[in-house]
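#onboarding

Welcome to the new folks! Below is a worked example of what a typical request in this channel looks like: someone posts a single protein sequence, and someone else replies with the predicted structure as tokens. Don't worry about understanding the tokens yet, we'll cover that in week two.

Example request:
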Amino acid sequence: MNAHTLNRKFHYWAAAVVALPVLVILLTGLLLQLKKQLTWVQPQEQRGVGKEPTLTMPRLLEICRTAQDAGVHSWADIQRVDLRPSKGLLKVYTGTHWEIQIDALTAQVLQVAYRRSDIIESLHDGSWFHPELLVVVAIIGVLTSILLPVVAKAKSKASQVSCLSNFRQLSLGVMLYVRDHENTFPPVRKVSGLHL
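Example response:
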């Protein structure tokens, strides 16, 4: 494979690698625009009966512990709590991306659902990727850009050495022919327009 073909293949794959993050950003952005309509992304918001919350914080933790799927055992498992007085609703977000919707007046659990919008947001803004990972990718990119010309030069040098070796073998063969045939060179034949 020559350097030109290698360069084309490298740019082909590099374009795919560059396009992948752009596609992730576009797709996650589209999902975030539609998150209120897609319950797969974000659970639909329920309505409570009262407007004023009557729950205490210890009672709220006790209610969250009853939601088996959410896996809440202590306050360390809860990421944040949102109060929506206009809807009479408390939303509890867990560290495992579950959302518990609780009626603010009756303390009844209205819904327990998995919330993917936070994961999609972190993919969209890039915070899902660890900075260490980005540094490693950058180092690999720099090393690749440094090594590609070196590899191309090594292939070119190998091709030159191979060509020189072939020429040496032909010369040696002609010299042996001349020695064996009383100092006469091999006959020249014309083959399809070429002199051999």
